[in-house]
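Give me the fold.
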Amino acid sequence: MAKYYKTKVLNSVEEVCDVVIPLRRQGRTVVTTNGCFDLLHAGHLQYLSDAAVKGDILVVGINSDAVVRKLKGANRPIQSEDDRASVIGSLKMVDYVFIFREDDPRAFLDILKPDIHVKGGDYTEDIIEKPIVEANGGKVVIVPFKQGFSTSQIINKIKLTSLKH
């Protein structure tokens, strides 16, 4: 199993393109999404499953550690970027994973030119990715948000539980 998922974790968006372009020429639909994926939970699994069924190949961009710190604060991420990429890469519904170091996904979306870019229901269709995805012939799809699941909530619950003991 370890060998399988490691082949799904690629080093750059350019490496993803090298793999995905021949598949796209075969008529396969490329779906992208992105996120921190710090502590994997049921909400993430539902989100990634919903994204995967939108096309043939699901590519996940993982925010780098530096970007997660910028977005979520100095105590995040809990897991390193390599560990987060390995965990997401081990999931059956995910075809390829890479770490991106920009503050937002527009640069990698301009390179990959996905047919579909998926975001969770905590976003609206008016996202910064939309113009670049549509300019390259793709579309943005918002999938339902699974209520009650949040990495921040899990971290807070762990903190509260540890204070009680």
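The mean pLDDT is 89.
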